[in-house]
Amino acid sequence: MTDPGGAVVGAAGAAGPEGGGSAVVARPTGAGRGRRRSRRQFGARIAILVLVFGYLLLPLLAMLEFSTRGDYGSRSLRSYVAILEYPDLIDGITTSLGIAVLTVFGMLLLLVPTMVWTIVRVPRMRRVIEFLCLLPLAIPAIVLVVGIAPIYRWMGQSLGGVGGSPLTLALVDIILVLPFAYRAIDSGMRTVDVATLADAARSLGAGWPRTILQVIVPNIRGGILSASVLAVALVLGEYTISSLLSFDTLQVVIFLLGKRDAYVAVAVSLAALVFAFVLLYAIARFAPGTGQRARIAPEEEPAT
Prior knowledge:
Layout lengths: L10 H4 L16 H37 L10 H4 L5 H34 L5 H9 L6 H18 L1 H4 L6 H21 L3 H10 L4 H12 L1 H17 L2 H5 L5 H9 L3 H25 L3 H6 L9
Helix pairs in contact: 2-14, 4-8, 4-11, 4-13, 8-11, 9-10, 11-14, 13-14
């Protein structure tokens, strides 16, 4: 039937709650389609995760299987125990860790004050700083070696043991890590208002060193930790420059060791990868805010 305004009213709609009838609620036409779409998206995500984990884990499992091979098909940890039997390998690990520490400190000392000063004082130069930091991505390592080889030759001849030390590779590694470290620190700075924090600290009488160390750095600690992990990973995996400059770092020693004992070389490589994964886990676990978000849970509303 129709109401006076001409609208059509169904029989089920006419018999409302007062008339003893039951209202008929039409099922949304897109509900089933949306549910099917969500299932397909979930399946696609699972497939992508399986492919990614397979791509990452299969080589690691192959390295573990190869490095634990024993006599007559048995399993043994001889290759991992034998790491301590190679003095050159221990020296390479110590050298690479020392270079990593110097690279992290040098990179942070160069980038953090520069980026803070750029944001606070000369924001127009932000694109220029970004371009300079990303420039090493476009320069191959072999080209860098050709350019810096005369400098290292002069350092070895003029500065004695200090100039000829493999720790001087930190100067080159700082340049190599700039693109990755800049992105990590820049993402941390974009989450806070660096200019306002710096102006507030300066207005309260803090100098620039105190402003950066006690105000800016604690707020971008996550970006700094991420940049540090990237720097350590790059130093532990760098081979080309170290080899061409004749410095015995970890990767160079692993390459030379692979000619004598491939099992120990693969064991050291796997241990270095595990060490990098542990650092990444430490970043995800101890970065600021992660623990707080886990502890602060939404309160449940009381049932009515």
